[in-house]
Amino acid sequence: MDWVLFAIFLASCFAAGSTGALFEPGEWYRRLSKPSWTPPNWVFPVAWTTLYLCIAGAAARVAPLEGSHYAMAFFALQIALNTLWTPVFFGLKRMGAGMVVLVALWIAVAATMGTFWTLDWIAGMLFLPYLLWVTIAGALNYSVWRLNPEPQPN
Amino acid sequence: MDWVLFAIFLASCFAAGSTGALFEPGEWYRRLSKPSWTPPNWVFPVAWTTLYLCIAGAAARVAPLEGSHYAMAFFALQIALNTLWTPVFFGLKRMGAGMVVLVALWIAVAATMGTFWTLDWIAGMLFLPYLLWVTIAGALNYSVWRLNPEPQPN
Fold first, then answer.
1. Do A92 and B19 touch (CB under 8 A)?
2. What is the predicted ipTM?
3. What is the DSSP string of chain B?
4. Using beta carbons and an 8 Å cutoff, which residues of A are at the interface with B?
5. pLDDT at residue B46 tops 80
6. pLDDT digits (tens, 9 = 90+) for A26-60
7. pLDDT > 70? residue B154
8. How far is A28 from chain B (nearest CA, A)?
């Protein structure tokens, strides 16, 4: 493992993850009707920290491999979409637009996992929890969006 | 040029650029004191569209080259930071935090340009306008931040 390379990928995850601290759920999210299976708030930063370590490790394994160009393009796409979701959902409070971003993110993560897997199965495995979590996040975004009337954008 | 690869990188730029439509400058930005050299509003989407086409093209040239792993890691970092800036500045209206993101973005863009240049000088050249624009954006963020008392975060 090239740790400098890992650190750069982890920095890209940190940029994405910083949105969780900058755009806090706050009163608006607390008051929303949520499905019974909504994870408690403390689960989210723990899950994301774990996932970011996994995907940065996966990227550091795959990047130096020959033929990793599509894998790297999909990685860039998913990290940009990941950075986008929190400001749209918690910043703008636009649950429908958040759903669009999440569907795009899910596709990008699946494509990243698929291309990683063909190059290095361990890297592919390291993306699996991320895809599962984005699936849960998508189900949660959808449920919350359906359970609550969409507020006007700020 | 692999056009599918180009399209994936351009999609990552589109995710970053969509923040410009989602988090509009609006009344708050209009009322801020701005330096005399502030570009008119219409320049920003034109500049960003051009820059995104250039950097997606550069990435599609560099990604398939041997030894492009650092270049790809820096590309992922800069596109995540690029996605982050607009929501922080125009969404949260946090000019100081926006400055921190812009400084990090500048460093990431410079590192991306440097690593691209060693692999393919044309790709490096395609990043130069982006670095210049981020420098201008940084100077503008700094000036606006200094000229206006920081409002409370939302």
1. no
2. 0.95
3. --HHHHHHHHHHHHHHHHHHHHS--HHHHHHS---TTPPPTTHHHHHHHHHHHHHHHHHHHHTTSTT-HHHHHHHHHHHHHHHHHHIIIIIS--HHHHHHHHHHHHHHHHHHHHHHHHH-HHHHHHHHHHHHHHHHHHHHHHHHHHHSPPPPP-
4. 2, 5, 8-9, 11-13, 15-16, 18-19, 22-23, 59-60, 63-64, 66, 68-70, 72-77, 79-84, 87-88, 91-92, 94, 97, 101, 104
5. yes
6. 899 999 999 999 999 899 999 999 999 999 999 99
7. no
8. 12
